[in-house]
Amino acid sequence: MFKNEEMEINLGPQHPSTHGVLRVKLRLDGETVTHCTPVIGYLHRGVEKICENKTYFQGQVWTDRMDYVASISNNLGWAEGVEKLFGIEVPRRAKYIRTMLTEQNRLASHLLWLATHALDIGAMTVFLYAFREREYLLDLFEAFCGARLTTTAFRIGGLREDLPPGFIKKAQAFQDLFLDCVDEYETLLTENRIWKKRTIGVAKLNAEDCIALGVTGPVLRAAGVPYDIRKAFPNAAYAEMDFEIPTRTEADTYARYLVRLAEMRQSHRIIQQCIDGLPEGPVMAKIPKILKSEVNEVYHPIEAPKGELGYYFVGEKGGLNPYRMHVRAPSFVNLQALPKMIEGRLLADVIAAIGTLDVVLGEIDR
Amino acid sequence: MSEPNTPDTPQENAVTPEVPSGPYVYDYAASPQRQIVMPKTVPLPSLKTYQAEVVAAAAADEAKWQKQLADFEVAKAKAEAEGKDAPKLPVRAVPRKDDNDMKTPWPVEAKDADLLKLQELLGDKVEEIFEQAGELVCQVKKEAILDALKVCRDDVSLKYEMLADQSATHYPAAKDFAFSVVYHLTSISRCKRLRLRILIPEGFSPESACSEYPSANWMEREIYDMLGIRFLNHPDMTRILCPEDWEGYPLRKEYPTVGWGQRDIDFREDRGGVLNRLAMEKAGQMGINLKQPKAD
């Protein structure tokens, strides 16, 4: 009467908890996942091809559209990668402002992660709290560059404009209230029995697997590896900043949650140092209006909220646009680990695993 | 695709209007945006090429200077013979300096201990080894890439644990190769980065790095999808971003930037014209003359 056979189901691509257009083909034995295949590419726009046909200045606009919740990090990677290609030295004030905005963007990205991850698992309230603070940050970005999400915040060689008047005051006001907000999220989740049941021991990925699969960012740090590009290969003004790399050893969803919350506190610390130590001076390097590259190739990694974001450029002699541009998107590589995390686990854990990887499909499909 | 409807009755035949010649161009060759400009140079960073270029540039500069001097002597003799004033001494051109905050990173000799170690371990499998923009580059023979990856991962003094990125570039203008495949390795314990590079001809299948670095799985699928390089011994060599039945490899240089079957309208020109006209009208209504004064 009852046949014992595996069932194949499709999760997504139009599913609210797959964070975009991710499709996961699952083979189920009852409620246990026996096989998992992520299917991606639904949002493929050919950003790399487009950027090969745009100048170095125009291409940055496309980086906003990749990881659209952390666009300033993407802008930073692009700008610094191109500066490395040309050998441009950026003024110190520009570096500080870049660092500050990138960290604020990291907060915004982590807040969106927290909101949607908790929503996926069933904690509705956190969403409202996290988005309240995220709004404040997006308003700050709007004050700085006129856009909330598609920022194109930086220019090659520095910044287009200095900070607008009153920006520091607003940023400081955010600083004053934010740590209490993080405590507030913690009161909602950290000791929450349902949250702990849904996250502790779920979607484990140990350090060896992380490194073998190229997984970076909070997922790697929650497995006990203190690898953070801001410390290992300092870019922008991170070498001058005093902060810690939060790590956990449990390597499960709960540990990643704690790591990200601790990271928010560290980002808060970095922003405070940027505000306090903001040097005076120009914000734009003296560079020609038209940049023509020499034959060169660079790979520039930065620590995006999701992990290692790398830009690979090949420049040709006298070229106005990159001969080849490649993005090492953190979510793309991290998503490879999804089958490893959920095979043999329950179907409900798939949602938690997708949430804890913090994938953004705009970046995976590019 | 579908054939045009043939009118059944003579009445309809009588009122069939002529096909309007609209702005839509379906002709592949006639479309201005479909004209693909293939690269003529091979921008492959390399110390050997750079050194050869520097020597050649110096020789060309010297030859030019000698010619200038010779021309000067001739002109001087001619002026003396004709009794005119002597011509001005030629001035040797100074090479253009970098701009204030720009310092172009040129390739330099490998000095880093990792590169020297790699050279020692791999021996004649190494084709080229240099540093540029603070990055370590090692180009190995295309058959030896798996050995090189093994050495990088397993040697105690190298210990590159993670394959951070893998990517490839198409060089249609090159003669003896068509693609370069680059492997960006990261040593988490030693905070080091290294780029391995191989040059492969069209149709060559390099060994997959999956056995050494499982993270290469999707990256190699992406390379196959975008550039059509097939990797040997890869667990699942299928397309990843494009649909399975997609034709062509988008990141090759001969691939057009306008999609297949897309209408070839030059939006930029059209839109610019409309916007410009609207702006003129609006300004005219406000009593502002935006038109440029005609040259006398």
From TrEMBL, chain A:
It is found in: Cell membrane. This is NADH-quinone oxidoreductase subunit D. It is a peripheral membrane protein. It catalyses: a quinone + NADH + 5 H(+)(in) = a quinol + NAD(+) + 4 H(+)(out). It comes from Geothrix limicola. Its main location: membrane. HAMAP family: NDH1_NuoD. The gene is nuoD1. Belongs to the complex I 49 kDa subunit family. NDH-1 shuttles electrons from NADH, via FMN and iron-sulfur (Fe-S) centers, to quinones in the respiratory chain. The immediate electron acceptor for the enzyme in this species is believed to be ubiquinone. Couples the redox reaction to proton translocation (for every two electrons transferred, four hydrogen ions are translocated across the cytoplasmic membrane), and thus conserves the redox energy in a proton gradient. Gene3D superfamilies: Cytochrome-c3 Hydrogenase, chain B. Keywords: Cell membrane, Membrane, NAD, Quinone, Translocase, Transmembrane, Transmembrane helix, Transport, Ubiquinone.
From TrEMBL, chain B:
Its EC number is 7.1.1.-. Its main location: membrane. The keyword Protein biosynthesis does not apply. Residues 1-14 have a biased composition (Polar residues). SUPFAM superfamilies: Nqo5-like (SSF143243). It is found in: Cell membrane. Keywords: Cell membrane, Membrane, NAD, Quinone, Translocase, Transport, Ubiquinone. It catalyses: a quinone + NADH + 5 H(+)(in) = a quinol + NAD(+) + 4 H(+)(out). Residues 139-257 form the NADH:ubiquinone oxidoreductase 30kDa subunit domain. NDH-1 shuttles electrons from NADH, via FMN and iron-sulfur (Fe-S) centers, to quinones in the respiratory chain. The immediate electron acceptor for the enzyme in this species is believed to be ubiquinone. Couples the redox reaction to proton translocation (for every two electrons transferred, four hydrogen ions are translocated across the cytoplasmic membrane), and thus conserves the redox energy in a proton gradient. PANTHER family: NADH DEHYDROGENASE [UBIQUINONE] IRON-SULFUR PROTEIN 3, MITOCHONDRIAL, NADH DEHYDROGENASE UBIQUINONE IRON-SULFUR PROTEIN 3. NDH-1 is composed of 14 different subunits. Subunits NuoB, C, D, E, F, and G constitute the peripheral sector of the complex. This is NADH-quinone oxidoreductase subunit C. It comes from Geothrix limicola. The lineage of its organism: Bacteria, Pseudomonadati, Acidobacteriota, Holophagae, Holophagales.
